[in-house]
């Protein structure tokens, strides 16, 4: 290696900076709240040869950590085959086809060739979650689509910007096929401008350090990231680690979908085998290959956050193609649930498998659902239609050091939920409750965090409620003797009568009228370690704060609590814990 | 008319480690400075011993302005007054649930302790809707019962926080009346009174922080005032607020949450004042401490203000405060080789204890400060004078062993690598702060202060392509100086939240008028001499459908709708390079700051003119080898207080002073100005 280690570190920081600035620019200028507020986007730099990930913004949505290199690679291959028009400087391709290295249709990728001295040096690419891309359900999260065509407009890679100029014809086609099209131009410009920011900054970096030095550094950094990941893996005992994670159903057929994972740790590599997982499903809970891979990567990054996001970090992770399972969906399988739900169940399988091997690093399972509740209706007072999305968090799993966090964000996301006050300003709804889902944290030496409980009423007009959530059938898994967190529960009150979705956490178009209510309890996190080993004082505190009842303290933790003020009965506790 | 004062003025700022003081007597150019260890349990002791150290005759002092970290520490360490919450039925957990987040994007871990525990959060029957219409009337007996229960549970302070109180505060006001009838003190905070904006978590946390620190701040200030009085002080005590303005000690605890950023705000205020006098109204400030560094932006001599500061994970305080961003690198940041064989600096820090190796308090890991020592930038003689058994050779050995061997370099090259990587990362972080505030760092002057800011300033400026660096006369007491030069200031924010074409502009004018009136009423009530009252107007706007707002400054309190639209579109284009005629704009907030400006202070005596030498050579105290860009260079070392007033100095050079070291790299040159500032021009950039 001729490049000195200091220049290497400096260039690494420089590449990261380019990506972070693209992320910042995209979010600040974007319109849709999913991007601007929730940061449901990611920006990165990808190799010219095969799209391998060179660097990606630190604030990008975790689920995009692995998908964009697949998307870019596919684009490069299609250009080479001549199935996509060859690039020119200042072109920007748009693509949202899930089967070409994507997630669901709403995640729209832009890719811009970056030229130096007339040659493509690398690709700059970003993904942004558009609020709508057409299809049968506003927002795209269908619970019952059976083909991708029902999910929305699917774009192959086409040049939306040709030599810097927006192709109005392509754009007109897009706008005619999506809802709330009038604001999209703001997002399109923001997404394109972010790539331009990246180009300016990357040019500055190359001018300063020289193209050759930077190329050399990129190659070396890839090796270093691989070395880093390998060193962590070598620290794990060799062996085969297995787990199962369950998706409630595909939304159409009420049967659980199983993810069966076995991870073989051998030397400094891990092999992930999803063999024996359920076959492709009829409903939209299929995952495309890029999302399956990305879910493994993001789970590993949650476990080893120190390793930089780079193709090198993924090298020691061999993923056997899950052919014939719902984790390798092909056209025309519907996929709208893959990025938001299936991805989180894959991550859960990784956590559950590795908890024994890495007890200090891995947490018990987090709630692991994005908790999508969509309400579309008409507000007679304002004389207009609306679509409301409520996303919600859940408890995180306990871990070696702490109890799990309550109402945490989804495993694959980083987005905040909107405040109740903002929801009530925008939509004809009234929340009656927005509270801790009591008792939901899985019992353990370190208990799981608590989920959320909310109860919301439609005040006027008619509306349709749809749910794409998960963990309604079984709760998030406990680890090392900890118990599962509470399941997700949905109850719809129509004219005073309770209705629960047949598929636990998924149903589409439930008709509601004024006064009808939706009551949701989100999952708690899994417990970590034997609940009988939890300190009685910690159990007492939870009971004093109303998080668990005295019965739960006795039954789950073996701690007898009574009296006023509440106190622990030591003798009785000892007796319970010896049982 | 209340009695207005002139004359001797003291600024005293309590920081995490030191309490700094500056005494100015504009009458006879007397300046006194002192620095004593902070006494964090009761900050008043440190303040008094700083006064003693400065040999200040309290009876002759006319005004004391105080910056305190009392409330900051209380929040960060959760050493809070026992506080209860009375809130809307169904919503007591809002403060605990937050906005569904986690501390870091990667790693499904983290902890969060809500500011008020769950058993002290009680619910009452009441409900407003988003339009401010009553959905459920307030059940008054619930309120009384809740207040009594909180008193029984030993609460000293109480928050009343109802949903949509920003739209209609009637229920909060009525509940407040009821609670005040039985509450034994004044510690009743209503959610809408500090922040009349939607977002129940943020408004609730702001109110909860206010209530939980209010009793502490009040006790502390009362004690301080009493101690000062018993030592002969008969004047006013003013306290620095996080907005960079000050407020009288009588009023400060009412809005105690506003003091949470008091310290950083005074530093930035001093920078704005110093820079403006020096002819540099646009500054990026860089205050480098032991574990982290603070970065802020000053435009046209006004510090950037934010209403959305988050002082730690999930702890938003949404009142206008100087927008100071923290960068996770300081002198104590640790350097190590990661498992991929790459050199990394931070984010772990040796902090103050054990601190860098060279402090001799048991630190054994290489830090940025140690690297500066090995490179000759920090004076090795200074460390000999500390009671430390650590030698340079030992530091060098650790660098060689921990870093050099893996990287294939000697200790000095490893030290240079550490500084270079640290500078790259810090520069990147400063750039991100600057960009996120909508500014290109190259258009600014870097104002470096704090113990270590001037040590890295020229390198950071070079990295950022910032052409000039300003090092104030007394970088180590900048916060105390901020207290002395601050103005009286009151900020007001009112939410409109309507598309521009639906805005009644008369309503906007009326809001501005009310804000001005209230601000002037408060300022005229203070017993402080004011040279003029100025008003800053702005609006927060966005395109319909966006969630981020953009602040647009106005030069009038009576704008037309067209004025607002064109000012917004222009600001938007400047910031994002995007024009969006396709989409409607909307008016979110109307803001006024009313500022009681104090008379200008002369800073030229911050460095005693008598002590200055007439020739540069005479200011040179020694020469030593300093490592620049891979080579040792024989470098002159100057004592700052000796430097001639008409300084012109070519790098490389090191300038030392009481608590700070400034580095001039080869190619840089420095000039002095009338206030004793050093203005460094970065070589190769201009």
Describe the protein in words:
- The complex is a heterodimer of chains A (579) and B (686).
- Chain A folds into three domains: 5-225, no CATH class; 363-534, no CATH class; 535-578, no CATH class.
- Chain A has a seven-stranded antiparallel sheet with strand order 2-1-5-4-3-6-7. Chain A has a five-stranded antiparallel sheet with strand order 14-15-20-17-18, covered by helices on one side. Chain A has a four-stranded mixed sheet with strand order 8-9-10-11.
- Chain A is globular, with a radius of gyration of 24 Å.
- Chain A is an alpha+beta fold.
- In chain A, helix 1 packs antiparallel against helix 5 (184-209).
- Chain A has helices at residues 5-29, 33-36, 64-81, 168-176, 184-209, 211-234, 289-303, 311-314, 338-354, 420-426, 536-544, 550-557, 570-578; strands at 41-47, 53-56, 92-95, 107-116, 119-129, 158-162, 165-166, 239-247, 257-266, 269-273, 317-319, 372-379, 384-390, 429-437, 451-458, 463-468, 489-494, 497-499, 506-512, 517-521, 561-562, 567-568.
- Chain A has 13 helices and 22 strands.
- Chain B is an alpha/beta fold.
- Chain B contains 17 helices and 35 strands.
- A ten-stranded mixed sheet of chain B has the order 3-2-1-4-11-12-25-28-26-27, sandwiched between helices. In chain B, strands 13, 14, 15, 20, 23, 24, 31, 34 and 35 form a nine-stranded mixed sheet that branches. Chain B has a four-stranded parallel sheet with strand order 6-5-9-10, sandwiched between helices.
- In chain B, strand 21 and strand 22 (343-349) form a beta hairpin.
- In chain B, helix 1 (43-53) crosses helix 7 (200-230) and helix 9 (368-374) packs across helix 12.
- The termini of chain B are far apart.
- The chains are: A alpha+beta (579), B alpha/beta (686).
- The interface between A and B is large, with 88 and 70 residues.
């Amino acid at each position: 290696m001729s490049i000195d280690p200091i220049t290497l570190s400096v260039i690494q920081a420089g590449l990261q900076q380019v990506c972070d600035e693209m992320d910042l620019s995209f979010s600040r200028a974007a319109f849709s709240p999913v991007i601007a507020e929730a940061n449901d986007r990611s920006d990165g730099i990808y190799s010219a040869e095969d799209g391998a990930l060179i660097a990606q913004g630190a604030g990008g949505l975790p689920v995009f950590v692995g998908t964009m290199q697949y998307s870019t690679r596919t684009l490069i291959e299609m250009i080479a085959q001549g199935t996509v028009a060859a690039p020119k400087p200042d072109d920007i391709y748009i693509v949202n086809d899930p089967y070409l290295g994507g997630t669901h249709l709403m995640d729209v990728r832009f890719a811009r060739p970056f030229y130096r001295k007339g040659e493509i040096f690398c690709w700059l690419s970003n993904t942004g979650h558009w609020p709508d891309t057409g299809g049968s359900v506003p927002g795209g999260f269908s619970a019952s689509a059976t083909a991708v065509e029902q999910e929305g407009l699917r774009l192959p890679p086409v040049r939306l910007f040709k030599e810097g100029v927006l192709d109005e014809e392509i754009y007109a086609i897009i706008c005619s096929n999506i809802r709330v099209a009038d604001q999209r131009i703001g997002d399109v410009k923001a997404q394109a401008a972010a790539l331009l920011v990246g180009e300016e900054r990357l040019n500055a970096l190359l001018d300063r350090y020289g193209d050759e030095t930077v190329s050399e550094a990129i190659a070396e950094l890839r090796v270093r990231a691989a070395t880093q990941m390998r060193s962590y893996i070598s620290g794990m005992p060799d062996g085969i680690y297995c787990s199962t994670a369950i998706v409630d159903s595909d939304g159409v057929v009420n049967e659980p979908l199983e993810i069966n994972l076995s991870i073989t740790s051998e030397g400094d590599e891990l092999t992930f085998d999803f063999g024996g997982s359920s076959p492709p499903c009829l409903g939209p809970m299929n995952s495309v290959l890029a999302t399956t891979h990305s879910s493994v990567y993001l789970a590993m990054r949650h476990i080893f956050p120190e390793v930089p996001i780079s193709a090198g970090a993924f090298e020691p992770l061999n993923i056997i193609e899950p052919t014939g399972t719902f984790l390798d969906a092909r056209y025309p399988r519907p996929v709208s649930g893959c990025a938001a739900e299936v991805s989180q169940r894959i991550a859960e399988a990784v956590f559950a498998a590795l908890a024994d091997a890495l007890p200090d690093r891995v947490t018990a399972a987090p709630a692991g659902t994005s908790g999508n509740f969509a309400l579309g209706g008409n507000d007679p007072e304002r004389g207009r239609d609306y679509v409301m999305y409520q996303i919600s968090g859940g408890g995180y799993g306990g871990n070696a050091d702490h109890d799990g966090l309550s109402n945490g964000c989804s495993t694959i996301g980083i987005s905040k939920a909107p405040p109740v006050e903002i929801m009530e300003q925008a939509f004809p709804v009234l929340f009656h409750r927005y509270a801790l889902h009591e008792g939901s944290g899985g019992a353990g030496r370190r208990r799981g965090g608590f989920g959320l409980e909310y109860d919301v009423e439609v005040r006027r007009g008619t509306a349709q409620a749809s749910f794409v959530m998960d963990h309604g059938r079984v709760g998030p898994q406990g680890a090392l003797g900890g118990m599962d967190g509470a399941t997700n529960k949905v109850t719809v009150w129509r004219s005073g009568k309770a209705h629960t979705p047949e598929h636990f956490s998924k149903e589409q178009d439930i008709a509601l009228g004024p006064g009808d209510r939706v009551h949701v309890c989100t999952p708690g996190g899994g417990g970590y370690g034997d609940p009988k080993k939890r300190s009685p004082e910690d159990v007492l505190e939870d009971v004093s704060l109303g998080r668990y009842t005295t019965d739960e303290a006795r039954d789950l933790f073996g701690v007898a609590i009574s009296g006023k003020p509440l106190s622990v009965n030591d003798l009785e506790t000892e007796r319970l814990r010896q049982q | 008319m209340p009695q207005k004062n002139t004359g001797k003025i003291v600024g005293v700022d309590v920081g995490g480690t030191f309490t700094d003081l500056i005494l100015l007597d504009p009458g006879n150019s007397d300046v006194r400075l002192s620095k004593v260890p902070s006494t964090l349990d009761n900050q008043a002791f440190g303040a008094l011993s700083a006064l003693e150290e400065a040999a200040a005759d309290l009876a002759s002092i006319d005004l004391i302005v105080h910056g305190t970290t009392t409330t900051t520490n209380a929040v960060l360490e959760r050493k809070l007054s026992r506080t209860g919450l009375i809130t809307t039925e169904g919503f007591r957990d809002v403060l605990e649930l937050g906005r569904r987040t986690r501390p870091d994007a990667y790693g499904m871990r983290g902890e969060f302790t809500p500011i008020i525990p769950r058993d002290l959060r009680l619910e009452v029957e009441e409900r407003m809707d988003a339009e401010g219409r009553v959905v459920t009337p307030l059940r008054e007996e619930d309120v009384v019962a809740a207040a009594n229960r909180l008193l029984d549970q030993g609460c000293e302070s109480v928050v009343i926080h109802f949903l949509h109180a920003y739209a209609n505060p009637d229920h909060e006001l009525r509940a407040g009346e009821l609670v005040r009838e039985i509450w034994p003190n004044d510690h009743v905070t209503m959610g809408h009174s500090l922040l009349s904006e939607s977002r129940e978590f943020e408004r609730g946390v702001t109110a909860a922080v206010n209530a939980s620190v209010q009793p502490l701040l009040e006790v502390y200030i009362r004690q301080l005032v009493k101690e000062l009085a018993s030592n002969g002080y008969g004047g006013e005590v003013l306290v620095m607020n996080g907005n960079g303005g000050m407020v009288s000690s009588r009023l400060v605890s009412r809005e105690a949450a506003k003091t949470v950023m008091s310290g950083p705000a005074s530093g930035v205020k001093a920078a704005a004042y110093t820079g403006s006098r020096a002819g540099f109204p646009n500054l990026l400030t860089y205050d480098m401490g032991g574990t982290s560094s603070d970065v802020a932006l000053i435009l046209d001599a006004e510090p950037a203000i934010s209403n959305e500061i988050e002082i730690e994970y999930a702890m938003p305080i949404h009142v206008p405060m100087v927008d100071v961003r923290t960068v996770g690198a300081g002198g104590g940041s640790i350097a190590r080789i990661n498992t991929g064989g790459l050199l990394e600096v931070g984010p772990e820090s040796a902090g103050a204890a054990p601190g860098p190796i060279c402090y001799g308090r048991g630190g054994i890991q290489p830090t940025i400060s140690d690297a500066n020592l090995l490179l000759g930038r920090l004076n090795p003689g200074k460390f000999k004078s500390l009671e430390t058994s650590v030698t340079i050779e030992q530091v060098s050995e650790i660098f060689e062993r921990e870093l050099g061997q893996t990287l294939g370099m000697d200790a000095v090259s490893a030290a240079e690598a550490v500084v270079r990587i640290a500078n790259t990362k810090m520069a990147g972080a400063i750039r991100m702060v600057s960009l996120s505030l909508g500014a290109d760092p190259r258009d600014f002057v870097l104002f470096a202060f704090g113990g270590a800011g001037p040590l890295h300033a020229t390198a950071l400026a070079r990295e950022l392509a910032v052409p000039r660096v300003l090092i104030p006369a007394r970088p180590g007491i900048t916060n105390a100086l901020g207290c002395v030069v601050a103005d009286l200031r009151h900020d007001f924010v009112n939410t409109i939240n309507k598309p521009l074409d639906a805005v009644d502009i008369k309503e906007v004018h009326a809001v501005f008028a009310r804000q001005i009136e209230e601000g002037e009423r408060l300022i005229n009530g203070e017993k402080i001499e004011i040279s003029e009252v100025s008003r800053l107007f702005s609006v927060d706007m966005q395109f319909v459908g966006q969630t981020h707002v953009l602040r647009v400054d106005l030069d009038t309190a009576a704008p037309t709708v067209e004025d607002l639209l064109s000012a917004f579109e222009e600001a938007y284009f400047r910031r994002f390079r995007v024009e969006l005629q396709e989409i409607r704009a909307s008016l979110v907030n109307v803001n006024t700051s009313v500022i009681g400006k104090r008379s200008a202070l002369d800073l030229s005596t911050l460095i005693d003119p008598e002590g200055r030498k007439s020739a540069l050579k005479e200011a040179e105290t020694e020469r030593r080898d300093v490592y620049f860009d891979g080579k040792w260079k024989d470098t002159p070392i100057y004592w700052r207080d000796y430097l001639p007033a008409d300084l012109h100095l070519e790098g490389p050079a090191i300038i030392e002073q009481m608590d700070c070291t400034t580095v001039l790299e080869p190619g840089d040159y420095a000039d002095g100005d009338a206030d004793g500032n050093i203005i460094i021009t970065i070589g190769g950039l201009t």
